[in-house]
User: Which sequence fits this backbone?
């Protein structure tokens, strides 16, 4: 029953009690109550832990805001809980010193295009793995799974070479005929890397649709593909939303390819991360701008998490615990 | 006129669809899988093979083609014996530990320590989220938000906290006597910073997976245990732990694989020169020294190392399951 005891912060107070005592102090009375009523101890332990986790996860954001609203002159004064002054101009400066909105736009574009691509390709694959029976299903599924364990670094050298090569066929579309410095240089590798997760999520959802509904659609005269996109996908809307939200967030958050596949200029489709890091490179002193840029860049995902938290939770758990 | 062309275009679209419709189930399946596997082939399978082939060639730093003659496994032996001409930067220049061993050590140490802490903290968070209480939804949002934030911002937060001019982190750690004067250029200190940042962000992932495991446990087991007089600790030890073990191990495997890929967090905080993980080494070899073949060898070794860890893990998992039943 005394499991709760070591957790209690006032060990010193307990030691004090070894002196011949006369009246019980607040702490001792509290400890005695805990021992006589262990459920209470567990409950208070639970609240202490909850508050601790809330503080540790949210405090860094709070501090980031404190840095962001501190004027550049008094950055030395930023405290643990207080800003060094108040001047929210940093949130405007980030768009004036650098076209940070362009970086954000690039990131949004890359994440959206990747999400659409992944959802389409994963829908086809998820349909096949979830609803059809054919030879070689398990080996193919395992092959998809294997991809998710290789480090992106293992693919980088050939991809870098491939995307830097000038391909004449692409010349009418792209300035110098190479994919480097275009959104595709990020979209293609990132889509492939996050494809397996979406396939697994969609596979589970598509497999749950009763066969009868698909058959009914087929009797009505749609093709198998028509049945997929007119019946199965709409009925699995929660699953598609889950896969979409997760893909969008992971692509938006991706670092490896996003930092290596462009030269970092906003007009060359460099994503948001280059924008945040640029405040460190060019303007070493302007910590408040870095903080402000980080806050602006984190807002879209933060909102997405708050709106779609159920989807994220179910998607991550079903996708990762499938095997 | 316009309806005619429309008709023509729909029939043009319908023709492959109709053709597809008349194929057998297996062929239909393969055709639908084609886009997925094409994407995976271009981005993963083909490059992996290429990486291996590149790693067997010599470095050609000055010529237009970055790969020289075929040299067999020379790049690998150079890397393993420490004579590879890669930038030697950090940790112990004086002892001359081969760069690959340093990178291997950093990567493995990071993976083991971070996964350990993330599991413990994630478990704590999951136990809280498993309870019913007022405002649980918002506590859950708060706990999973770090997992959803971009790596670059996670890195930026901890870079700011530990940059000596502005953050309080360095002062605090110096007061504890752990950090030197400029932690972001010291390997050990930076390693700790990266570790803390990673634990902060990814504990939430472990928490979610463990929570899923916890919620699949039959609540009646707890009721029975309560009736028979088991304390909460006994309920945790004899019911929760054994039932949560399999999903927990799978979650740890996923995290380990992910932790061994670490690159972005390091690149955006201390820099790859200070804390060289294996992925970092690939990029420094490529960009700083333009040694494409050596970089390919490191990249392939990274994949092999992760593969080995996964295999060891799976064997351990199988043995432990065999031992339990």
Assistant:
């Amino acid at each position: 029953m005394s499991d709760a005891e070591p957790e209690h912060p006032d060990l010193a107070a307990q030691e004090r009690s070894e002196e011949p005592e006369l009246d019980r102090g607040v702490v001792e009375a509290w400890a005695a109550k805990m021992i006589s009523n262990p459920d209470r101890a567990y409950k208070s332990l639970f609240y202490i832990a909850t508050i601790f986790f809330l503080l540790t996860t949210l405090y860094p954001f709070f501090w980031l805001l404190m840095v962001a609203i501190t004027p550049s002159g008094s950055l030395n004064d930023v405290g643990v809980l207080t800003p060094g002054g108040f001047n929210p101009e940093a949130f405007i400066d980030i768009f004036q010193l650098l076209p940070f909105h362009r970086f954000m736009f690039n990131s949004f574009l890359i994440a959206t295009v990747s999400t659409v691509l992944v959802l389409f390709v994963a829908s086809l694959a998820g349909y096949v793995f979830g609803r059809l029976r054919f030879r070689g299903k398990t080996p193919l599924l395992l092959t998809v799974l294997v991809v998710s364990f290789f480090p992106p670094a293992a693919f980088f050298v050939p991809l870098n070479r491939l995307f830097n090569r000038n391909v004449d066929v692409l010349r009418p579309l792209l300035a110098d005929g190479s994919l480097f410095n275009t959104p595709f240089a990020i979209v293609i590798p990132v889509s492939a890397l996050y494809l397996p997760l979406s396939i697994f999520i969609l596979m589970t959802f598509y497999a749950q649709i009763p066969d009868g509904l698909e058959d009914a659609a087929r009797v009505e005269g749609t093709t198998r593909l028509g049945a997929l996109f007119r019946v199965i996908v709409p009925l699995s809307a929660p699953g598609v939303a889950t896969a979409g939200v997760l893909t969008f967030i992971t692509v938006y958050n991706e670092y490896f390819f996003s930092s290596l596949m462009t030269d970092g200029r906003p007009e060359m489709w460099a994503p948001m991360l280059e924008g945040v890091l640029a405040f460190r490179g060019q303007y070493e002193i302007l910590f408040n701008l870095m903080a402000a840029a980080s806050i602006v860049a984190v807002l879209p995902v933060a909102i997405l998490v708050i709106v779609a938290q159920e989807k994220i939770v179910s998607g991550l758990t079903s996708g990762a615990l499938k095997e | 006129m316009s309806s005619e062309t429309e008709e023509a275009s729909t029939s043009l679209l319908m023709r492959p669809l109709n053709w597809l419709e008349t194929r057998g189930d297996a062929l239909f399946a393969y055709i639908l899988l084609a886009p997925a596997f094409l994407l995976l082939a271009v981005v993963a399978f083909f490059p992996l093979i290429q990486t291996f082939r590149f790693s067997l060639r010599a470095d050609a730093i000055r010529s237009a083609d970055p790969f020289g003659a075929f040299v067999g496994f020379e790049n690998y032996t150079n890397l393993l014996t420490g004579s590879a001409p890669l930038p030697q930067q950090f940790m112990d220049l004086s002892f001359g530990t081969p760069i690959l061993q340093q990178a291997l050590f950093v990567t493995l140490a990071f993976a083991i320590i971070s996964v350990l802490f993330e599991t413990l903290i994630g478990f704590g968070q999951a136990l809280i989220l498993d309870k019913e209480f007022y405002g649980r939804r918002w506590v859950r949002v708060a706990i999973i938000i770090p997992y959803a934030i971009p790596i670059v911002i996670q890195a930026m937060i901890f870079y700011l906290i530990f940059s000596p001019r502005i953050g309080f982190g360095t002062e605090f750690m110096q007061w504890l006597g752990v950090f030197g004067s400029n932690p972001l250029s010291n390997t050990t200190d930076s390693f700790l910073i990266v570790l803390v940042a990673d634990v902060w962000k990814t504990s939430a992932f472990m928490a979610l997976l463990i929570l899923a495991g916890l919620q699949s446990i039959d609540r009646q087991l707890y009721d029975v245990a309560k009736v028979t007089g088991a304390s909460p600790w006994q309920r945790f030890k004899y019911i929760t732990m054994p039932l949560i073990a399999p999903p927990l191990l799978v979650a740890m495997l996923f995290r380990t694989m992910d932790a061994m890929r670490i690159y972005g967090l390091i690149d955006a905080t201390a820099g790859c020169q200070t804390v060289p993980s294996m992925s970092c080494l690939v990029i420094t070899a490529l960009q700083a020294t333009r040694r494409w073949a050596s970089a390919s060898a490191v990249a392939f070794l990274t994949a092999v190392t992760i593969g080995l860890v996964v295999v060891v893990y799976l064997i351990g998992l199988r043995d432990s399951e065999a031992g339990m039943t």
Remarks:
- Residues 1-7, 17-21 of chain A have pLDDT under 50 and may be disordered.
- Chain A has one domain: 92-320.
- Residues 264 and 274 of chain A are 6 Å apart (CA to CA).
